Amino acid sequence: MSKNQYSLLIVDDDINILEVLDARLTAAGYTTYKAADGMTALTILGTKNIDLVVSDVKMPNISGLQLFHEIESVRPGLPVIFLTAYGSIPEAVSAVQAGAIDYLTKPFDGKTLVGKIRHCLANLPTKSEVESPLADTNHGGFIWGRSPRMAELRNMVMRVAASKVNTLILGESGVGKECIARAIHRHSERSNGPFVVIDCGSTPAGILESELFGHTRGAFTSAVSDKKGLIEAAHGGTLFLDEIGNISPEMQHRLLRFLEEKIIRKVGSVEEQHIECRVLAATNANIVEDVELGKFRQDLYYRLRVVTLNIPPLRERQEDIETLVRFFVESHYTVHNLPPVTIPDETMRWIRQYSWPGNVRQLRNALEAGVVLCADNILRVTDLQLETDPSLQKHSGSEVIATEPFSLETSEKEAIIRALKATNGVQIKAAALLNISRRSMHDKIKKYEIIPSDYK
After folding, report:
1. Which residues, in sequence order, are CB contacts of 24 under 8 Å at separation 6+?
2. Average pLDDT value for residue range 123-136
3. In this model, does residue 388 exceed pLDDT 70?
4. What's the CATH fold of domain 3-122?
5. Backbone angles phi, psi at 40, to 5 degrees
6. SS3 for the chain, per residue?
7. pTM exceeds 0.70 for this model
8. Higher model confidence: residue 322 or residue 437?
9. Which residue of 61, 177, 381, 400 could cross-link 282, Cys pair, CB 3.0 to 4.6 Å?
10. Weakest-pLDDT range from 171-175, 400-404, 411-415
């Protein structure tokens, strides 16, 4: 995108500075909109497609920091650069810690400001990138698709990537939360740094502390040598905390302290280390409910979710399914050195009608099985090895046929019961149907006081 296609909003209560900014940025080739106060700025944001905001910190009525928080609520991830006098530097620093791009002190250098703007806008997606259904296919086979919801998500991801803000990624199992986290890292200024993943859901509580913070030799019985923690390993890059909702209260406290102070101390050590990394977190749990029930710290929740990204389940973006199917089928027969595979219309219709409770991951795995097993290089429904019919999820006995898809989002307890009925009470099969772990299935059955034997 050329410069004059980018629109900048400049906000300053000093009319002279506002005119200087307007002249400088217009000369640099950008389209500018001017606001002398926060309320005017918010009005412009509601009517114009703004790509970046340059704002003063000290302003009457609505300060720059207050304006930033308002922007985060209406346009999450929109890049903001602050201009500040010497006395208001602490406020600008607070804004940067909350997710603003950067700040410059007055009097500012015009070339430096333009340079920062250019760097920031370079990370935003171009129109062709947003419209490309196969963007990022070189990174784990992730496809954005053409649906409006995924186009909106991609735009959000690119804006978030251009900032330093902590981000919470929400979505059902299999929607691609780690792929989104990698996309944020890949398009950020930290892209040359490490991307470190820790699965909080599968790591036992007693081990998670050592995994995250590291330990010194002799810190506990099996600590035979010093170990670098994953937070330290992520220095200069991005730390991705998957299934963050599963960590213990003690670990929540330690993680909160790190997020607030950027300081860690290894298990068994008295020395503190300053770590600079971006934190992305993800969960498929209802974390808001956990906060309300006191299971998850509210202060940690707000630290993690400066911006929230919601990834839609596959059943809510059916217009992307055919694109995904054709891409995965081609990828699988290429990887396995097989001849091209044909997808009959009836197979494609069946796939489009299926509810896909395991989302894109389930679709990808089913198609791999189908490509490997299909006869005559023709993909048939039976090749996909899916146990249930897409539109007729049968209950046991004489109960009526259920037409709703399995969904943990709409009614978790009902979905578990329906999955148990469909699998005659076999927990491991019901867990596979819902695409959750056996441990999660066991915990949810205990939580809802469900007796699996009732559905045999």
Report:
1. 110, 113, 114
2. 49
3. no
4. Rossmann fold (3.40.50)
5. -65, -40
6. CCHHHCEEEEECCCHHHHHHHHHHHHHCCCEEEEECCHHHHHHHHHHCCCCEEEEECCCCCCCHHHHHHHHHHHCCCCCEEEEECHHHHHHHHHHHHHCCCEEEECCCCHHHHHHHHHHHHCCCCCHHHHHCCCCCCCCCCCCCCCCHHHHHHHHHHHHHHCCCCCEEEECCCCCCHHHHHHHHHHCCCCCCCCEEEEECCCCCHHHHHHHHHEECCCCCCCCCCCEECHHHHCCCCEEEEECHHHCCHHHHHHHHHHHHHCEECCECCCCCEECCCEEEEEECCCHHHHHHCCCCCHHHHHHHCCEEEECCCHHHCHHHHHHHHHHHHHHHHHHCCCCCCECCHHHHHHHHHCCCCCHHHHHHHHHHHHHHHCCCCECCHHHHCCCCCCCCECCCCCCCCECCCCCCCCCHHHHHHHHHHHCCCCHHHHHHHHCCCHHHHHHHHHHCCCCHHHHC
7. no
8. 322
9. 177
10. 400-404
Tell me the CATH number for domain 161-310: 3.40.50.300
Cite the residue boundaries of each domain of the chain with CATH code 1.10.8.60: 314-384
Q: How far apart are CA 285 and CA 171, in angstroms?
A: 8
The architecture that CATH gives domain 314-384 is: Orthogonal Bundle (1.10)
Residues of each domain in the chain carrying CATH 1.10.10: 389-456
Confidence of residue 123 (pLDDT cuts 50, 70, 90): low
Q: How far apart are CA 92 and CA 83, in angstroms?
A: 8
CB 210 within 8 A of CB 230: no
Of 1.10.3470, 3.30.1050, 1.10.10, 1.10.357, the CATH number of 389-456 is: 1.10.10
Given a cut of 90, whether residue 77 has pLDDT beyond it is no
CA dist 267 and 271 (Å) reads 10
Give the model's pLDDT for residue 221.
Answer: 67
**pLDDT of amino acid 271:** 82
Q: Whose structure tokens read 């000369």? A: 27
Q: Which residue intervals of the chain bear CATH 3.40.50.2300?
A: 3-122
Q: What is the mean pLDDT of residues 283-294?
A: 92
Please write the tens of the pLDDT for every residue from 245-272.
Answer: 988 888 899 899 999 888 888 877 778 8
434 with 406: CB under 8 angstroms? yes
Q: Give the amino acid at 137.
A: T
All CATH 3.40.50.300 domain ranges in the chain, comma separated: 161-310
Q: What is the pLDDT of residue 407?
A: 41
At 161 the pLDDT is: 87
Token pair recorded at residue 156:
């959000």
Q: Which of 296, 297, 270, 275 is CA-nearest to residue 285?
A: 296
